[in-house]
Amino acid sequence: MPLLATVARALCVLDHTTGLDAFCLPYPPVVQLALDRAVVAWLRGGLRPPASLAELVQRCADIPLEDWPLSLPSDAVGPDDVLLDPYSHRPTQLCHEWSDWERSAPDPAVRHRDQQVMRTALDRCRSHGEEDAYTEFRSLLVRRPVLTAQELFALHGDFTLEPVWELIDLIYPEVPLSWSRDGCYAVCGRCGTLLTPLAGGEWWCERDRCRRQGDPPVGRLIEAAHAGTVYQLERPLRRHVTGPGLAEVELEHRLTGLGLDVTMWPGFDAYDLLVVFPDGHRWAVDVKDWAHPAFLGRAARPVRPEPPYDEAFWVVPVYRVRERPGYQQAFQRARPAAAAAVRLLTDDELTRAARMRLAEPRRGTRADSQEGTDA
C-alpha cells in the first residue's frame, strides 16, 4: 500500500511538470523514491524491474494494479484499476485518491487549491450575507467549466455573483491553442469540460466516468476565430468541484422529477442537497463520487446538523458500485466508529427510497414523520 501511494504521488507531481523536465535528473524526491520502491518490489517478486522512470510510467498505464507484485487486501484494487489513463497518460481519479492516502501530498499548494478557492468564496459570500451568491457560484463551476470571452464578460453583469467576480477571473485561466483542432475547441457533451485532441482525429475526456461510457460526444464546437479567448476552470477545481458536482446535479434532477422540493448546497454548502417531502419530512444528502470505497470510508463523518433535517445519507453514483463489487461493504469496514451511523446508498437506491416514501399514505405533520425516522 505505501508503494502505491508513493507512485501515485509521484505521478501527480510529474503531471504538473511540463515538457521533458519531468524525465531529467535529478528527479523530484518523491519521484526518485517511487522509482526506487518500484524496482525493489519487482525484484522481490522475481520479476524484471522497470529500467527507467519512463518505463515505470508506461507500466502505470499498461499494467492493472492487481497484476503488480504486491500483497494487497482483496478489496484494495479492482480488476481494471490503473494509475494512468492508457490514452493520455494522465493520472486517473483513483491515482489521485491513492496520492492523498497518506495525507501528505508532495505539493500542498496544488492539493489544497480547491479548498482555498471554495473557502474564499464562502467567506466573501458570508461577509455580504449572500447565500444565493455562493449557490450560484458553485453551480457555475459545476455546469459551466468552459467559458468564452463573451460569456465571462457577461458574468460581470450578474450582480448575484458580485461578491466573487474577482475570484472567477482568477480561477478561469486562458486555454492554449493546443487544446484545439482545426481552429475549434470541443466541449464534452457529458460533463462540459474541454476535450483533448488525440492523433487520428479522436477526442479524449479527462473524466473517468465519461471514458467508461465510450467515446466522448462533442457537445459544442467553439471556433477560436469567432469566440476569441476561451477560458476553462483550473484543473483542481474541475476534479474536486465540477466532477462530483455533476453527480449532485444529476441527483437533483431525478428528485425534482418526482415532485420533491430540492435545495442545492444549503446553509453555505453544509451538505449537497436538502430534500423536502410534501409532509415536511427532510432529507440531507451528501454525494460522494469516489473511486475507492475504503478511502471514502476513512473520510466518513456525520452530516452537519444545520440546516435541520430528519434523515441523512451519503450517496455514491451507482456506476461506482457496479464497477467494484462490495463497494458499500468496503466503505462500512473502513469508516471510523464516530461515523458508524453514516448510511451509504447509491443514487438509484436513494431515488427508489424517495419514490417509495411518496407512495406511502400521506403523513399529517413533520412531527409525525420524525417519530418514524428511527424505524
UniProtKB/TrEMBL annotation:
<dbReference type="Pfam" id="PF18156">
    <property type="entry name" value="pPIWI_RE_Y"/>
</dbReference>
<feature type="domain" description="REase associating with pPIWI RE">
    <location>
        <begin position="245"/>
        <end position="360"/>
    </location>
</feature>
<dbReference type="InterPro" id="IPR041191">
    <property type="entry name" value="pPIWI_RE_Y"/>
</dbReference>
<feature type="domain" description="pPIWI-RE three-gene island">
    <location>
        <begin position="4"/>
        <end position="148"/>
    </location>
</feature>
<dbReference type="Pfam" id="PF18154">
    <property type="entry name" value="pPIWI_RE_REase"/>
</dbReference>
<dbReference type="InterPro" id="IPR040828">
    <property type="entry name" value="pPIWI_RE_REase"/>
</dbReference>
<protein>
    <recommendedName>
        <fullName>Fis family transcriptional regulator</fullName>
    </recommendedName>
</protein>
<feature type="compositionally biased region" description="Basic and acidic residues">
    <location>
        <begin position="356"/>
        <end position="369"/>
    </location>
</feature>
<feature type="region of interest" description="Disordered">
    <location>
        <begin position="356"/>
        <end position="375"/>
    </location>
</feature>
